[in-house]
Design goal:
The protein has about 500 residues and is α+β, with helices and mostly antiparallel strands. The protein has a domain of about 170 residues. About 30% of the residues lie in helices and about 25% in strands. A nine-stranded mixed sheet has the order 4-5-3-13-14-15-12-16-17, with helices on both faces. A three-stranded antiparallel sheet has the order 8-9-10. A three-stranded mixed sheet has the order 11-19-18, sandwiched between helices. A hairpin with a 6-residue loop joins strand 9 and strand 10. Helix 1 crosses helix 6 and helix 2 packs across helix 16. The relative contact order is 0.19.
Length: about 500
């Protein structure tokens, strides 16, 4: 997130100086690291929790459209950075990887078909295919169909628009570009110890070297962005702005089973997302994913939830207790009571044995053998808990920008859908903290150079969407050609059923 903002601001205002403080020895060692997240270019093509069923039994697609629109901004942002020489070799960080939903059982197959039909209302989901036929699905995911009982009722959707993204590689390339600018300075192995507001309204940020605590430094800044992943909440609290009093965080980690045997991984090219079991929260949904990491192709299955009081993978066990204040303790307790099913789920995950995880894997890959897989501990995510006047506290999904009233300091809290929407989130940040600058003709022109469809709802403009797909697919060297958009096949508004109440769905954001 911070690297994205740095690249964006360096283009909008090349004369501005940027100082970045990184706690670890290098950037992208936490959540952005390719091994610490699922690497999904989240477009709601496969993730069923973005298309919930309402009280009337209709599948609602508004959230899916929102998520997909956001990733179109990311595609354009990546494309521009390639043209500007910021990013190199698109295949090093983004690869065509079909996104699939894969379910079994009567209720789930019926739901998936309804979802498929509902998504026809949006051009963003053009090219999606649906099938209940074992042989056809085996052409999409042969590894997952080997040895599967042919009497099992299954259904799948397949989209050619999916991608696997290495956000760690993107971050490294962003920072490499920024380091070539005389206006940028990176402080690694440096931990922020204090954030104080100066008398003139600017901010003083003090940091210490994490190697030996001998070297210290102070930076005075007109604007401060706290984009430290799970570490953003403690920094927000350190700033003392009242807007941060409403927030608490609950850390949840994730682990994946990993296979890197070419004979297996080369038979699978998809990110296949499932459906939650009856009574289980949607965050329990694992996915069977092709990944391109460290120059090779691997398959990851998970996530399995883990728990630690750390807010970061390389954080402190005191992170959670140190974040509890008189302002946020009640919201935390209230969420623990209201979301007890999630507490039960987490407890169940923590008690899983290696055999339990293998059995979960075999639901997706029936012929999986334990010796072909290893368990990998991925990153930490801090779910937002926010004070609520009616409920006391609520678990907030997605990400949230929290800023001071004058816009001089801002933090990004939350995790889902994560790095795949870094570009649109940072553009939203500009609206919040640099609204006057963003309204100028100069910034508007530059932003539209970076993201040509900025301010345009592509869902309502299929011709523009088709042009954007073609342009970005070409520059990003995506191997699978974008589908044609058949405007006549799109569902008409009068055929779309009115929505009833939609139950909120949790999301572990891995």
């Amino acid at each position: 997130m911070s690297a994205t903002l740095g690249v964006l601001l360096s283009e909008l205002e090349p004369s501005w100086t940027i100082e970045m403080i990184e706690r670890l020895d290098d950037v992208a060692m936490e959540s952005s690291n390719g091994w610490n997240n699922a690497g999904t270019g989240h477009s709601a093509l496969a993730e069923l929790n973005y298309t919930p069923e309402d009280a009337n039994g209709n599948v609602q697609i508004a959230k899916a459209v929102e998520i997909n629109e956001a990733f179109q901004i990311s595609r354009q942002f990546f494309t521009h950075q390639i043209g500007a020489g910021v990013l190199k070799d698109p295949r090093s960080f983004i690869n065509s990887t079909p996104h699939m939903s894969f379910v079994w059982g009567d209720d789930n197959t019926k739901f998936l078909e309804k979802r498929y039909e509902a998504l026809k209302a949006s051009p963003l989901f053009s090219g999606m295919r649906f099938s209940t036929d074992h042989d056809e699905i085996a052409k999409w995911i042969p590894l997952m169909m080997e040895g599967r009982d042919r009497s099992q009722k299954i259904a799948a959707t397949w989209s050619p628009l999916g991608t696997d993204v290495n956000f760690g590689e993107i971050t490294h390339q962003y920072i490499a570009h920024l380091k070539r600018q005389s206006t940028f300075n990176l402080h690694t192995s440096s931990e922020v110890k204090d954030i104080q507001r100066n008398a003139d309204g600017t901010w003083r940020v003090s940091y210490t070297n994490t190697k030996d605590n001998s070297a210290t430094g102070t930076i005075n800044a007109k604007f401060v962005f706290l984009g430290a992943g799970g570490g953003a909440l403690p920094l927000l609290q350190m700033s003392g702005i009242p807007e941060g009093d409403d927030y608490a965080g609950f850390p949840v980690g994730g682990s994946f089973l990993v296979c890197d045997k070419p004979g297996l991984v080369n038979q699978h090219l998809a990110k296949a997302y499932g459906q939650a079991s009856v009574g289980a929260p949607p965050m329990s949904v694992p996915h069977f994913d092709t990944r391109f990491l460290d120059g090779k192709r691997v398959v990851l299955f998970g996530p399995f939830a883990t728990f630690s009081t750390k807010f970061l993978k390389y954080g402190s066990y005191f992170d959670l207790p140190a974040s509890v204040t008189l302002d946020n303790i009640w919201p935390m307790l209230q969420v623990g009571f209201d979301e007890f099913n999630l507490v039960e789920y987490l407890a169940g995950q923590l008690m899983m044995s290696d055999e339990d995880r293998l059995q979960a894997l075999r639901e997706y890959f029936p012929q999986a053998k334990a010796e072909d897989w290893r368990l990998w501990q991925a990153g930490q995510r801090v779910q937002i808990i926010k004070r609520d006047p009616e409920k006391g506290g609520v678990l907030k999904l997605g990400t949230e920008i929290v800023s001071s009233e004058d816009g001089s300091i801002a933090a990004l809290l939350g995790a889902s859908p994560g790095a795949s929407t870094a570009a649109p989130i940072m553009l939203d940040l500009l609206k919040k903290v640099f609204s006057k600058k963003l309204a100028t003709r100069e910034w508007q022109a530059k932003v539209r150079t970076i993201v040509p469809t900025y301010g345009v709802k592509l869902n309502d403009n299929p011709e523009t969407l088709a042009a954007e797909w073609a342009a970005t697919a070409d520059r990003l060297q995506l191997a699978i050609t974008p589908p044609a958009i058949d405007i006549s096949a799109l569902a008409k508004p009068d055929n779309v059923k009115p929505g009833g109440e939609v139950k909120r769905v949790p999301d572990m954001a891995l």
